[in-house]
Amino acid sequence: MLYQSKIAGLGSYVPENVVSNEDLSKVMDTNDEWIQERTGIQERRHIKKGDGNSTAVMGMKAAKIALERAKIDKDDIDLIVFATLSPDYYFPGCGVQVQEMLGIDTCPALDVRNQCSGFIYGLSVADQFIKTGMYKNVLLIGSENHSGGLDMTTRGRSVSVIFGDGAGAAVLTRSDDKGQGILSTHLHSEGKHALELSLKGPSTMHWVPELIEENPQEDIPYYPYMNGQFVFKNAVQRFSEVIMEGLKENQLEVGDIDMLIPHQANLRISQFIQKKFKLTDDQVYNNIQKYGNTTAASIPIALTEAWEQGKIKEGDHVVLAAFGSGFTWGSAIIKW
Ligand SMILES: CC(C)(COP(=O)(O)OP(=O)(O)OC[C@H]1O[C@@H](n2cnc3c(N)ncnc32)[C@H](O)[C@@H]1OP(=O)(O)O)[C@@H](O)C(=O)NCCC(=O)NCCS
């Protein structure tokens, strides 16, 4: 390793439009009690038609804040990494859109498709490029427009109540201090469970007319499918494993964690991990209550908020961990 990378600036953006559990109960058969009891979610944000937002636009808004806080000029960005499962276009990716929106000339832009683990996968990519000395400054974005593709009827309720829109961004830069910054990242995937949490189409294999013809009305594959309990069981196991893997790699103990930011999949999953590791409320940051699951955006939004609230201080050990569709999972150990 030639260099170390560190987070120099963080930013987040969520649309103004708040959608409460009560609001959802007006369009589908659900209720506040069921949603809060199973997921901890009270409300989420949805893009409103005409508010100008999209996955790329929200990503750009979060990126602008992160760049300003990092005090790094857009023209000094060497690489853009954009993580999302809900891009504006089938192709090209959102990375090039943000490049254009920010007025950045010809740096490379890379889209990452690793769903809820997207931000950690992106962080790992950014870290490797900085560590080898190839790039100095990387703009990393996680952004999702879930509301653009959810089944907002009773048929889709077990998925649609969980997900929300938003974006988060981090500017990573080269650090001279080898003991500070991203200490390590740990990535995994297990493709045999690919369809347990998936959106089959529209895609080259499943185009719209075929989708409608091939499938009975009650199982429409152009909306996300989730085997909730199977995902839950795998998530709690993989979260625990990958956090321990990261700690071990750095000769750290659970007690050394100053702040754990778990991907905001479900408050019950976070609480399970907190209890298992015997962490206090101050050692774990959750905001799923306000935003739902924002997939690739959830960790950078939570990290930004925790930092803004002064909950992360210099020298702290910050642990990020995620699990999601693929299945994919990962962790990052950071010395702030
Ligand atoms: C999705 C999840 C909240 C569902 O909770 P659950 O306890 O597994 O609930 P089930 O799916 O077994 O459904 C229980 C009942 O509630 C009903 N239900 C489903 N969604 C509902 C909703 N939004 N409102 C009211 N009732 C609902 C079901 O139809 C079922 O009814 P039935 O018993 O009459 O058949 C839970 O499985 C979960 O959180 N899984 C992990 C999800 C996750 O983390 N995903 C992202 C990974 S990155």
From TrEMBL:
Acyltransferase found in the keyword field: yes
Domain Beta-ketoacyl-[acyl-carrier-protein] synthase III N-terminal span(s) in chain numbering: 110-191
Origin species: Mesonia profundi
Protein name: Beta-ketoacyl-[acyl-carrier-protein] synthase III
A Pfam family this chain is assigned to: ACP_syn_III_C
EC number: 2.3.1.180
Recorded family membership: Belongs to the thiolase-like superfamily. FabH family.
Function of the protein: Catalyzes the condensation reaction of fatty acid synthesis by the addition to an acyl acceptor of two carbons from malonyl-ACP. Catalyzes the first condensation reaction which initiates fatty acid synthesis and may therefore play a role in governing the total rate of fatty acid production. Possesses both acetoacetyl-ACP synthase and acetyl transacylase activities. Its substrate specificity determines the biosynthesis of branched-chain and/or straight-chain of fatty acids.
Every Beta-ketoacyl-[acyl-carrier-protein] synthase III C-terminal domain range: 247-336
GO molecular function terms noted in the UniProt entry: beta-ketoacyl-acyl-carrier-protein synthase III activity
This protein's pathway: Lipid metabolism; fatty acid biosynthesis
Record text on subunit structure and interactions: Homodimer.
SUPFAM superfamilies: Thiolase-like (SSF53901)
Keyword line: Acyltransferase, Cytoplasm, Fatty acid biosynthesis, Fatty acid metabolism, Lipid biosynthesis, Lipid metabolism, Multifunctional enzyme, Transferase
Domain notes: The last Arg residue of the ACP-binding site is essential for the weak association between ACP/AcpP and FabH.
ACP-binding: region residues: 264-268
Active site: C116, H263, N293
Catalytic activity: malonyl-[ACP] + acetyl-CoA + H(+) = 3-oxobutanoyl-[ACP] + CO2 + CoA
Localization in the cell: Cytoplasm
